[in-house]
Design brief:
The complex is a heterodimer of chains A (97) and B (360). Chain A has 4 helices and 3 strands; from the N terminus they run αβααββα. With 97 residues, chain A is of the alpha+beta class. In chain A, α2 (21-32) packs across α3. The radius of gyration of chain A is 13 Å and the shape is globular. Chain B has one domain (30-347). Chain B has helices spanning 4-46, 61-90, 93-100, 103-131, 134-141, 144-156, 162-186, 194-219, 224-250, 255-264, 266-302, 305-317, 325-340, 344-347. Classes of the chains: A alpha+beta (97), B mainly alpha (360).
Chain lengths: 97, 360
């Protein structure tokens, strides 16, 4: 069974030093076979929630034009607290840390 | 062509707007919690005036508690159905399944949250109502955000600013101003069982306060819409597989008859369906607010249900609340504004955790 969406976002993000949300969104849409504005926005909200909880952090931001609209995009990384929370919830094991 | 300085200024403004939007959404969800919770009191109370519940005398506490267990179970099943509709419309049913199956690591927290908010808080509230009185039950419940905020602070370092704490205190005082004056007519310390009511009051504040803090553990890594459906899945199971069969087997209460009588009385079911619709989306808003403004703020704004409950009851019964309702209204609105006036940037990061470099 696939991971739930927020779990997938955390695992993907933790697999590198950090990722831009555009890349994370592309990977997530591919994983779950989704497309369109609604799903993109759903993933952006999930990232905002993860950042508010301190599980991930925004390291950089930039204004980009997406589909003719000026939008903020963020470069995210998992925090130490996030890694601990991922271990607590089985999304990360000591060996893969 | 825009200079680097202009671009940076635009980016800073966009960031401010982004954080303000998140804060506004968080408070909007918390306000919906309060509105729907207040609306819930109308069908929730009306249910007790319908068969089979109207036939249970007020002094038969055991029977009333058994009836509460039955109605809470049927209510939870209906809430589950409304949440299924919600998640179906949002396309999140698969995410619900994927979250639910990770019981040992994630959904167990939703199970624990359902125990805190269900049997502990609801039973506590009914004990407080039955052994002391409904006003006492309402006043003790008002303190649940304090429990939630303290546990969230100690357990996972949720940031409670001075302004958030002040807003919370003003909202609680507003609630007390609404219900407090009636309390003096209600307290009867000569009763032998009054201590059970006090225990019930503590149970309800503890239960609802703990629910937020416990649920937030799982919401950290899972979707709140899927999470709330997990929570009600467990509540349906707790009442249906453990509590009701236990009551049916080991007590004399006619649990089976109560279930059948509730399901076959159209008016009772109508109130349960209406109450469940309010409760389902009240709880959805509650959990969604935690993700954006934290457990302490979400629960404190949720406390505005005290105001909305009286407004909805006045609308349906045409009985105006007492004059001191205005004091309560002013205080709760003031408390909400004190909370909302926090800088959006400080609300965008809810935990005092090691998050590495500063948020841009």
């Amino acid at each position: 069974m696939k991971l739930h969406q927020k779990g997938f976002l955390l695992v993907e993000l933790n697999s590198s030093a950090g990722l831009w949300d555009e890349e994370l969104i592309a990977r997530t849409l591919r994983e779950y076979g989704r497309s369109g504005d609604y799903w993109e926005n759903t993933i952006r909200i999930a990232l905002d929630e993860l950042a508010a909880a301190g599980v991930i952090t925004r390291l950089q931001s930039q204004l980009t034009t997406i589909r003719g609209k000026s939008m903020l995009t963020f470069f995210y990384a998992v925090t130490e607290f996030g890694k601990t929370r991922m271990m607590d919830t089985g999304l990360l094991t000591e060996t893969t840390r | 062509m825009a200079t680097a300085e202009t671009v940076d200024k635009l980016r800073t403004e966009a960031l401010k707007a982004h954080y303000a939007r998140l804060q506004r959404w968080g408070f909007a969800w918390a306000l919906w919690t309060a509105i729907l919770w207040g609306a819930w009191y109308v069908p929730g109370t009306a249910l007790w005036y319908e068969k089979p519940y109207v036939d249970i005398p007020a002094d038969q506490m055991g029977m009333r508690l058994a009836a509460t267990a039955v109605m809470t179970w049927i209510h939870a099943i209906m809430v589950f159905a409304f949440l299924l509709l919600w998640n179906g419309a949002l396309g999140k049913i698969a995410d619900y399944g994927r979250t639910l199956v990770r019981f040992r690591r994630i959904s167990k927290w939703y199970a624990l949250a359902s125990l805190c908010g269900g049997p502990l808080a609801i039973f506590g509230s009914y004990m407080a109502m039955g052994f002391v009185g409904p006003v006492f039950a309402a006043v003790t419940s008002l303190f649940y955000p304090v429990i939630g905020a303290v546990v969230a602070r100690l357990w996972y370092k949720e940031r409670i600013t001075g302004r958030a704490a002040l807003g919370m205190a003003i909202i609680i005082m507003g609630g007390i101003a609404i219900y407090g004056p009636s309390l003096f007519g209600e307290l009867d310390i000569s009763s032998n069982h009054v201590w059970l009511g006090y225990v019930g009051g503590i149970m309800s504040a503890l239960g609802w306060g703990l629910e937020g803090a416990v649920a937030a553990r799982a919401i950290d890594v899972s979707d709140p819409d899927a999470g709330i459906q997990c929570r009600f899945s467990f509540e349906v199971l707790f009442w249906g597989i453990l509590i009701l069969p236990f009551l049916a087997l080991f007590t004399q209460f006619p649990i089976g008859t109560l279930v059948v009588d509730t399901l076959t009385h159209g008016r009772a079911m109508l109130w349960i369906v209406l109450a469940s619709a309010c409760h389902a989306y009240c709880y959805t808003s509650f959990y969604k607010s935690f993700t954006l403004i934290g457990v302490g703020r979400g629960e404190a704004i949720g406390n505005l249900y005290a105001i909305f409950a009286l407004i909805f009851i006045a609308m349906f019964t045409l009985q105006l609340p007492e004059w001191y309702f205005i004091i309560g209204l002013v205080l709760t609105v003031l408390g909400s504004f004190v909370m909302f006036s926090e800088p959006a940037e400080s609300v965008a990061q809810l935990r005092d955790t090691d998050t590495g470099p500063k948020t841009p």
